Amino acid sequence: MDHIGILKHALETTLRHRALWILGLLWALVGGGSGGFSGNFGNIGNFGNRSSYRFHGHDFSSLAANFNPAVLLGFLALFCGLLLLLAVIAAIARYVLQAGIYRSLDQLHQAGTEPTVRGAWREGWHRRTWRLFFQNLIVSIPLVIGAILLDRKSTRLNSSHIPLSRMPSSA
């Protein structure tokens, strides 16, 4: 197999068809790989003393007195729901873009049809794309549930064991 020839052909195809650049960028945007968030906030307020609810010179003691946990839970549930909705939309868009790119490239090589963003998007909504999406969803859900259950079990087991350094000496 000529690996160098395959890579050269892929590079030529990508450079010649600008629609593939846009589709690839969109696929990367919804496809993930963010690397997480890491931040150092330093000392942003005086939260060590419970009697002082001051943050950068503003007094929030009246807010703390009228705090309603139900409102916070409502906002948290709304935020989690929106996050889940965005994750589902991104997953669907990823599958549509992926299938559209594959089908456009197939049409390019089979019939010589020039790939376009609109054509790839339209091809991505094909029935086979939905079949693939639901197959992966059916496989992924039990795997995620299993990983969560295993993680909870390992956390529970780790918290019940006493470290050797804390055991009383028998001397």
Describe the model.
The structure is a single chain. The chain contains six helices and two strands. The protein has helices at 3-16, 18-31, 61-65, 69-111, 117-124, 127-160, and strands at 54-55, 58-59. Strands 1-2 form a two-stranded antiparallel sheet. It is elongated, with a radius of gyration of 26 Å.
SS class: mainly alpha
Low-confidence stretches: 33-49
Q: Can you give the mean pLDDT? A: 76
Strand portion: under 5%
Secondary-structure element series: HHEEHHHH
The shape is elongated
Helix proportion of residues, in percent?
Answer: 55-70%
Task: Please give the number of β-strands.
Answer: 2
Radius of gyration: 26 Å
Structure annotation, total helices: 6
Distance between the first and last residues' Cα? 71 Å
Main sheet overview: 2 strands, antiparallel
Strand line-up across the major sheet: 1-2
List the helices and strands and how they pair.
Layout: H1 3-16, H2 18-31, E1 54-55, E2 58-59, H3 61-65, H4 69-111, H5 117-124, H6 127-160
